[in-house]
Amino acid sequence: MTVKIEASSGGMPHNTIMMYGLIVSVVCIYLTYLNQLTDTQWFAFFGGIGAIAALWWGSDTIKHLCSYGLGTGVPSAGMIAFGIGAIAMVFATKFDIATPIVAIIIAGIIGAIIGYIANSIVNMNIPVMVMSMCELAIVGALTMLGFSAMCAGSFGFNNLVVAAGSGEVIMAIIPELGVIVQSGGPLFGASVIGGSVLAVIFILGAMALQHPFNACLGPNESQDRTLMLAAEVGFLSMIAVAVMSYAFIDGLSATIALVVSLLGWYYTFTQYVALSKRDAFMWLDAKPIREVGGK
């Protein structure tokens, strides 16, 4: 028998959060396609906003699932979500404009299977397990897709596996050896996936998904504070992705993404501090601990 523990009462219904998060995430990821239509990379930052919307939704899903006495399961749920998301996201990038929709479908199917195994074979017996794993898998896929699109300027497979500007092929003839040497061409090792940037995005997204409920869990956990922290750590991850994007997109586009992420982080951080002061029993401006023999 599994006993549900109410983490917080009131606030926005979970299904409403899911609807907002899913719609905003998909729309923002699709807005990165404006780069192809305008032959620029200025709109790459929308991918980061889409990823944050997914993380915002996912943090409430984590709370919804772990309110059934699974507090120590928060990290594992986040890692499983992004493991599934990575599979669905990479597979879906071959479908061009349909990539976000295919990613959602594939992630949802795999997540539901994992949830069923956890409930019916491992016997965890959590009523919301199947639905929650389905949601978290989609969150993982959309987060990785959004951050990858922000880094590469597009969510297309070719943009993620080929370094920008690496299409030129240089031929050199060496008469003494009687050979022709070819250099240049597509560079997989310097791409988002080939350069292991996707692995960094995996960790950034998984940590951002796990942290909000873990940090706010307690008798006075409040939905607005938890969701604000989700947005704050999402923008913090977006800052790191924006810095990495300098290696793949033009400097102006990367700077736009960096400025947007910095402004978003500053606003959400100040709001989270204000909500923390609101919910705290007492707020003390503590001073650094004095060292032995210090003044």
Can you give a write-up of this model?
The chain has 295 residues and is mainly α. It has one domain. Helix content is 64%, strand content 4%. The protein contains 10 helices and 2 strands. The protein has helices at residues 14-31, 34-38, 45-66, 74-92, 99-121, 129-152, 157-161, 197-216, 223-245, 251-279; strands at residues 169-174, 179-184. The chain has a two-stranded antiparallel sheet with strand order 1-2. It is globular.
Helix-strand layout with pairing:
Elements: H1 14-31, H2 34-38, H3 45-66, H4 74-92, H5 99-121, H6 129-152, H7 157-161, E1 169-174, E2 179-184, H8 197-216, H9 223-245, H10 251-279
Antiparallel strand pairs: 1-2
Helix pairs in contact: 1-3, 1-6, 3-6, 3-8, 3-9, 4-5, 4-6, 4-8, 5-6, 6-8, 6-9, 8-9, 9-10
Tally of separate domains: 1
Uncertain regions: pLDDT < 50 for 5+ in a row? 167-173, 179-183
Number of helices: 10
- Largest sheet report: 2 strands, antiparallel
Neighbour order of strands in the largest sheet:
1-2
Gyration radius over CA: 22 Å
Structural class label: mainly alpha
Key phrases:
mainly alpha, 10 helices, two-stranded antiparallel sheet, single chain, 295 residues
In short:
The chain has 295 residues and is mainly α. It has helices at 14-31, 34-38, 45-66, 74-92, 99-121, 129-152, 157-161, 197-216, 223-245, 251-279; strands spanning 169-174, 179-184.
